[in-house]
Design brief:
Length: 307
């Protein structure tokens, strides 16, 4: 899979150094906070509903989407905005091009402390806004392809240790996320896709966002907890995890393959075939048959896309 990462990296703690723009050739172009603050500013108002009441705010800044196009004439397919505490939002290029975004320095006349920078999207809910912008990643790569190999999450966890109070977490049990990875991949940087029973998708990087992360077993499934991303991004009731071309699936949620086909753009038809491998046999079976009779996968070690 061809993958090119373009990064806009802000400074680490106080954001004093502004933004560094890195192009596809690896050349860096720095823009200090003072340079950005000197840009001509406009005011934009937003209306949000909080606790049943409408809240009107006035922000001062400039169009971030316009500034990005001016300073980086590079193709990209995904843009990811990341805060200092690893809160992240992502948009496809098609989505981003239809949205007005603003890099703002103050709210209702009050300048943000510590020279903080904020990106807001007036037409979207504020859960898509980013405080203390630290990093913007522009990705120009093909969508994460369908994994060649599927295993069952329960089986993989059966060979991992269930840890009491896994550091840095207390009053819980969990499996370290790193124990899910094949031994040969634990030193690598990997893209990770997590999908929940309620249809939420989370795209992360290992180990950047998953260092020390755990899967916490509950009555409803497995919950993600990671010490390096905000708790608001911890996904609940995970039924699918993909790491490169390797995936783990909850056996009771095989029908999630239909939703994943759409969400991850696999472009599979119902008659695509898999090779099911058991202890003493291997046979081909169509996706349609798997969904119609999940018992066909009983005692399977794994199944993989047929060549």
């Amino acid at each position: 899979m061809k993958k090119t990462l373009l990064c806009l990296i802000a400074c680490s703690a106080s954001l004093l150094s502004g933004i560094t723009l890195t192009d596809t050739q690896g050349l860096s172009h720095s823009f200090s906070y003072q340079d950005l603050a000197a840009m001509p500013r406009q005011e934009v108002s937003t209306i949000r509903e909080k606790d049943g009441e409408k809240r009107i705010d006035t922000w001062q800044g400039f169009r971030f989407d316009h500034w990005l196009k001016t300073n980086l004439e590079q193709p990209f397919k995904i843009i990811r905005l990341e805060s200092a505490d690893r809160y992240m939002v992502s948009f496809s290029r098609a989505e981003f091009d239809t949205l007005a975004s603003w890099l703002v320095f103050s709210q209702n006349g009050e300048i943000f402390p510590d020279e903080g920078l904020r990106v807001i999207f007036p037409s979207l809910r504020d859960m898509k806004w980013v405080r203390d912008l630290e990093r913007v990643v522009l990705e120009d790569f093909d969508p994460l392809s369908m994994p060649r190999r599927f295993e069952f999450l329960d089986d993989r966890l059966g060979s991992a240790a269930l840890v009491e109070n896994p550091a840095p977490f207390i009053n819980t049990q969990g499996y370290y996320f790193a124990d899910l990875l094949p031994l040969s991949a634990r030193a690598d940087t990997l893209g990770a896709i997590l999908y929940s029973a309620d249809g939420m998708k989370l795209a992360l990087e290992y180990p950047r966002h998953l260092e020390g992360a755990i899967l916490e077993p509950t009555d409803d499934g497995f919950n993600l907890k990671s010490p390096v991303i905000p708790g608001g991004m911890w996904l609940k009731n995970i039924i699918y995890i993909q790491l490169g071309d390797f995936a783990l699936l909850e056996p009771g949620n095989l029908d999630a393959l239909v939703a994943l086909n759409r969400v991850l753009d696999w472009k599979l038809g119902p008659d695509v075939h898999f090779v099911v491998r058991k202890e003493d046999e291997a046979y081909q079976i169509s996706l349609n048959d798997i969904l119609s009779d999940p018992a066909l996968l009983e005692d399977a070690l794994f199944f993989e896309l047929a060549p």
